[in-house]
Amino acid sequence: MTNSTSSTGPTWTGMVPVDDTALAATDTGGPGVPVVYLNGQFATQGYWRRVIADLGTEWRHITYDERARGRRSKRSADYSFEAAVRDVDAVLAARGVHRALVVGWSYGAFVAAHWAARNPDRTVGAVLVDGAQPYDWLDDAMEQHIRKLFRRMGWFMPLLRPTGLVPRMNPEEMANSNIELGRLARARELGPVLDGITVPTRHVVASGSSFGSSGDGQELIRTSLAGVTERNPNIKIYAKVPSNHGAILRKDFRAVAGAVREVAALDGGER
Predict the structure, then answer these.
(1) Is the Cβ–Cβ distance between 32 and 4 less than 8 Å?
(2) How far apart are CA 225 and CA 205, in angstroms?
């Protein structure tokens, strides 16, 4: 199998223009399988460092910060989910990569699932880390709770923005993004997307609850994967790990790296 690009040079770091903005990206280059990492909703590319270190230099690692995330990605008028999916194409095109393995955590798992379903000929496979689980968790009361939560958080966000730990989005923009994700997670919306995936896909599932959830809510959401794997033989659960949603990339990075290796080993296409 051959790589889709001739890039064999040192690590590249720069800005990728897309629509009305630009995204901070890093590409390790080299002839290995290109892996593009898709972040949590308000997270940054730095969350992947342990996974990348475990996989090592035989892979080509491509990371980027979404619109208004991190220290350098620029603001935009469009923070929609569809914009996030388009950004995958923009980053890969900018780096000369036609075909890649997509790895997404949380919000990024939804992006990875949609991108893989829409682009089977360009997808080596997908690893979905505690995300893209079809479940109807959003109702009117939850929507109001989300809006109140982000309004309450609004007073200290400007203090953290210079560190890159929170996005340069206002509370309403952040709430709207979270609510949109809840709508996309509904079984009638996400179920057909997952059913349509035709490339090797592995879920790495966390345990317990984390910030923003309560009780066994997240565990209940995770039960939906049983139906997904029954309907689509391309999708399997690689591992359920001890850490919770927020800590999974820090504490169970080896499981994520293992899922990447398994998916790549199943690839029968040309890169």
Answers:
(1) no
(2) 10
Residue with tokens 């997808």: 123
Q: Please, which pLDDT band fits residue 163 given cuts at 50, 70 and 90?
A: low
Contact 222, 229 (CB under 8 A): no
Q: Is 252 helix (H, G, I), strand (E, B) or coil?
A: coil
* Residue among 204, 216, 214 at smallest CA distance from 252: 204
* Rounded Cα distance, 19 and 6, in Å: 26
Kindly report the pTM of this predicted structure. Answer: 0.92
SS3 assignment, position 17: strand
CA distance 201 to 140: 33
- Count of residues for the chain? 271
Report the C-alpha gap between 100 and 7 in whole angstroms. 14
DSSP H or E stretch at residue 8:
none
